[in-house]
Amino acid sequence: MQQDPKSPSRPAAQSSADTSHVLATLSHALRTPLSGVLGMADLLAQTDLSHQQQRYLSALRQSGDQLQGLVNEMIDLAKLNAGILALNRQPIALAPLLQSVCEQLRPKALSRGLNIHWTEQGLNAAHPAKIMADEQRLIQILLSLVQRALATLKSGSLTLSVEPLGPSSVATAQIGLRFSVKPTLASLEAIHPPEIGDHERLTLAKLQTLAHLHGGRLGLSEGRTGLGDLWFEARFDREQQAGEPKAQGPANASTASNRGARVLVVEDNAIAALLARALLTQEGCRVDCVSSADEVLSKTLADTYDLIFMDMGLPQMDGPSLTAALRARGITTPILALTAHQDEDSRAACLNAGMDDFLSKPLERIALRRALWHWLQRDTGVKPHWTLGPAQANLAP
Which secondary-structure segment (H or E) carries 30? Predict the structure, then answer.
C-alpha cells in the first residue's frame, strides 16, 4: 500500500528536500530570463544612445533591478519559512565588511547630496578582527538598514558603525556586536519615509527572520534629530583559525592580461550565451560557445582552453556531472560555475564535482573581471573565494 505523499507521517526530511528542489527550480526559472534582461540592458548602456534613449534605458534597468530584488526576497523568505535556509559561517573581517556596504550605496547617496561613512572605533584589542558569520546574509541586513535610513533624509550624512555589547576579552569564545546606522550631523532634516509597499513588507519580514536566524534582533532607537537610529545586534563566534586570503583582484583590472585567452562558455540559453560572449570579448578573451555535454567533451579533447564557464542546468547533463566527467578524462582547466542558482547546496555541488569557482547570474562585469584576473594569473598561490555578485537587499524605494 502506497503512502499518501501528503500524509503527516511522511518523513520531514523528504518534505524539506522536495521544498528545496521546488524553490531551486523556481529560482532558476525566474532568474534566468531576468539575467538576460539586466545583462543586455548593461550592454546596451555602452552603446551610443540619445538622451531620451538613456532615460528609457535607465527606467528599464531600475524596473529590472526592482523585479530581481522582489524575486530574491520571495525566494529567500520562502526558504526561511520552510526552514531550509542555513547560514554559511566563514571568517569575516569587520572593517572590509562595513566598507563594502558603504561603497555599494555611496553613489546613490551622493546623487541625492548625502554621504555615508563607516567606523569600527568602538572596538579595541580585546575584540576580534574577524568573526564567524554568513557574509552574504549579514551584508543584506546592513544594506537594508542603510537604505532605509537614506530614505528618511533630505541632507547630511549617515555613519554605519559596529560596537561591542558589553565588556569582552580575548578569552571569550563569542562576542556580542551591535551594528547601527545613525545620522552624523545635527542639522539633518527628517522626512517621512515612503509608504511601505509589498516589496518592502517582504524585505522587512525577511530581515526579521534573518536576524532571528543569527540569534539576534533588529531595532529602532529614537534619536535627538527625530530620525531614530537603526540597529542590528547578535552574538558571533570568534574566528577559530586563520582564514584564507581572498583573491578578489582589482575591480578595474586591465584587460591586457586577458588578451588572447581562450575561454569556453557552456550555456544552453541563447541570450545568456550571447551576454557571456560579449562581456568576455570586451575583456580581451577569445570565446567559443557550446550548448550541450557532447559538444563540451569533443571541444575540450580537441582544443586547449584557459578557462571554462559552465552553466549548472544543461539539458543532457547538469554542470556538476559534466565537470566530474571532464575531470575523470584528465581535463585540469579551471571550471567556473555560471548559474542563476544562489544557494549553498549548489555551491557545495560545484566544489564536490571539481569546479574551481562560482559566479552568479546576472553575470556582472566586476565579478567577471576579478575572476579573470585570478584564474588567468594562477601563479599567485592564493586560493580564491566564491566570486559572487553584490548581495541583494533592496529596501529603499
Answer: helix 12-45
Among positive and negative, which fits the CA dihedral 229, 234, 235, 240?
A: negative
Question: What is the CATH number for 365?
Answer: 3.40.50.2300
Which CATH number belongs to the domain containing residue 151 in this structure?
3.30.565.10
Residues 31 and 159 in one domain: no
Which strands form 307-311's sheet, in the order they lie side by side? 286-290, 262-266, 307-311, 335-339, 357-360
pLDDT tens-digit map of 250-293: 544 555 556 788 999 999 888 889 999 999 998 899 999 998 88
Cell numbers that stand for 384 in this block: 580564491
The C-alpha angle 209, 23, 335, rounded to 5 degrees, equals 105
Q: Are residues 48 and 145 in the same domain?
A: no
d(CA 84, CA 133): 17
For the whole model, what pTM was predicted?
0.58
| Same domain assignment for residues 232 and 125 | yes
Number of domains present in the structure of the chain:
3
Domain interval for residue 156: 90-238
Q: Is 200 exposed, middle or buried (0-12, 13-18, 19+ CB in 10 A)?
A: buried
- Name the residue among 304, 312, 314 with its Cα closest to residue 336: 312
Separation CA 349–CA 292 (nearest Å): 19
**371 to 5, 169, 256: CA distances (angstroms):** 44, 38, 14
What cell does 382 get?
Answer: 592564493
CA 250: distance to chain centroid? 17
Give the SS3 label for residue 122: coil
| Whether residue 128 is found in the same domain as residue 52 | no
CA gap 249, 237 in Å, rounded: 28
Shared domain check, 199 and 101? yes
User: Which pLDDT tens digit goes with each residue over 225-247?
Assistant: 445 578 888 888 877 544 444 44
Residues 344 and 293 in one domain: yes
- In a domain? residue 393: no
| Contact predicate 267/289, CB 8 Å | yes
Q: What residues have CB less than 8 Å from 353, skipping those under 6 apart?
A: 319, 320, 321, 323, 324, 327
